[in-house]
Amino acid sequence: MAATETGPGPARVTPRDQLLVVQATPFCNIDCRYCYLATRDERGRRSLETFERVVARVTAAGIFRDEFTICWHAGEPLTVPVAFYRSCVAIAARYASPGLRIRHNVQTNGTLLTPEWCAFFREAGIAVGVSVDGPASLHNGSRVDRSGRGTFARVERGLALLREHDVPFSAICVLTFRHLSNPQELHEFFTTSGAASVSFNIDEIEGPHDVSSFQASGAVAHFTTFLTEILRLNRASARPLRLPNLDVDLLQMRGQAGNHQVRPWNIVSVDHRGNLSTFSPELMGMADSQYDDFVFGNVFDAPDGWPAPTPALERTAAAIAGGVERCRRECAYFDYCGGGAPANKYFELGTFEGTETLHCRIMRKAVLDVNLANAEATVARARERDVSRAG
Amino acid sequence: MQPKVRLLAVASGIAALALQARAGAPADGANFATRLRVVQEQAVALHLRPAAAQTDATPTPWNDFSNYGGGY
Fold first, then answer.
1. pLDDT tens track for A33-63
2. B15–chain A nearest CA distance, Å
3. What is the pTM of this model?
4. Which residues of A touch B53 (CB under 8 A)?
5. How many whole angstroms separate alpha carbon A320 and alpha carbon A116?
6. What gap in Å lies between CA A162 and CA A115, rounded to an integer?
7. Does the complex come out with an ipTM higher than 0.85?
8. Hey, are the CB atoms on B64 and A199 less than 8 Å from each other?
């Protein structure tokens, strides 16, 4: 790949990982302490015309192949009425074809779920992700409303509705340093929550959230102990959870997989005004004149085709490629990471051209180290069985 | 398992243990790459891992969209 390649191109990611992140509104009804979204007070809303334009442009330009997922995110999607999404699903269906499947998913804080939402998700086949940080004692530490009150009771009601209406859902749990002392409590909560899978993240340094609880000394060691225990509990469980980003089967996995965040237009992010961004979705809406605030076009700019690469897009792509190249040269984990998340480099290091971040020390290196130790233990057990059989 | 294959698996296991002892247990940096290669070779010898390499489109920790959610 050329260092400054900026046109749409085939992504080395699975079709399901082709993502169109669509912001219905930047507004969020709650005020999580670690939120990266600087515009979450703004009540602007996307029009149906803008949405149709987005889908028309993306499909006409052949940005994605075979299938892609419209991810309603970057603001609380459920602050916009069900009727809006009903229309959007119908619009998107007009642009789908036998050769191009379009999925929808919604990432919600769960506090505004109603029977009507549940019925709609089921009817429209929309995948649902709920952001919940574990039981009340952990969740309420960060996920608070605009009065500073914990939101757990409201989320719990939402989860109960999803279960009651048989709506499958996944969960995202943002870990803070405090979670690390409670692996058992956390595992038990998610096992009984009804979530089909749980993805974990940490409170990252991003946007206005310029500190992380994982900057505490000993965070890597503490996280390693936590993760080892969570994986042990999960393997011993009668109903193990799917933990897609913690439980990594290194005995089956091959390296050299793609990193969808480092090439332009592998991920397309669109704000509620139709502004187009790419690379890490967290960059959308971040003020930085050097990179034109990471706005690389607008769906209404040009009548046909995909917006030509702007100088800011060229600069961003070149800087990101420089950072990826350094990771390739300097990091032993590169084959299982692909050069990191540009947003983490930008917010933590102040440049895309850096390498190691706090996020990669915890969520990549420590995760891979723990899974490597587990792989070694699996092989050692198999070898012992083999030797005892041969003996 | 054929005796020769078993012998290879045991030998590579000993090599891995020696490397770990030299580097001081927890994986880091180059130690990670070496240990991973060794354990994957052992897994092939023990039929825990297919020998044929498929290099593309295998989800890695990066590709799970843990930050972006919604049904993954």
1. 999 888 888 888 889 999 999 999 999 988 8
2. 13
3. 0.87
4. 254
5. 43
6. 8
7. no
8. yes
